[in-house]
Amino acid sequence: MNETMVCAVGNVATQPVYRELSAGGSARFRLAVTARYWDREKSTWTDGHTNFFTVWANRQLATNAMASLNVGDPVMVQGRLKVRTETREGQSWTSADIDAVAIGHDLARGTSAFRRTGRAEPAAAGSPPQPEPAWETPADDSPERENRQRREPVAVA
Q1: What radius of gyration, in Å, describes the C-alpha atoms of the chain?
Q2: CA distance linking residue 39 with residue 59, whole number of Å
Q3: Phi, psi (5° rounding) for residue 135?
Q4: For the residues of 18-46, what is the DSSP string, one character each?
């Protein structure tokens, strides 16, 4: 509650780094987010300022990010924004981190092939596996449908 959730669209700027911790895996990478605007004088799109965020992923998201992301990949990151200010050697530094909840490739700029990761699911004792739901639209066997199909097309002259 009262956390700043953001969705940032940009490019992976550094190769993800993975570490195994006592609470599970953790990965981080830098995300470059560049604003673009239409320059009326030049009649072209122009790059604006670039913001860099350190993206942190934990547990299964960290493992999947390591297996899926490379430098330059266009991605979308959703998560909690954390802005920190600290003093190092007399200078004040401000950094913006995103504690990621979801990371995905930006399909507006390319294609991606999704593969589920294997995970152990607790099996309920004695319950049979559930069948896949039927996603197809049910057939309409009403008499009105037959009349619609028998109509001849009208030519427009």
Answers
A1: 25
A2: 43
A3: -90, -10
A4: EEEETTEEEEEEEEEEEEEEEETTTTEEE
pLDDT tens digits, residue range 8-57?
999 999 999 999 988 889 999 999 999 999 999 999 999 999 999 999 99
DSSP lists the bridge partners of residue 6 as 79
C-alpha angle 59-62-64 in degrees, rounded to nearest 5:
110
Residue pLDDT, tens place only, 59-69: 999 999 999 99
The Cα angle at residue 111 between residues 51 and 97, in degrees rounded to 5: 25
Task: For 65-131, give the DSSP string.
Answer: HHHH--TT-EEEEEEEEEEEEEEETTEEEEEEEEEEEEEEE-TTS------PPP---PPPTTPPPPP
pLDDT, tens digit, 9 for 90 and up, residues 92-150 = 999 999 999 999 999 999 898 888 887 655 555 555 666 666 666 665 555 555 555 55
CA distance 66 to 26: 10
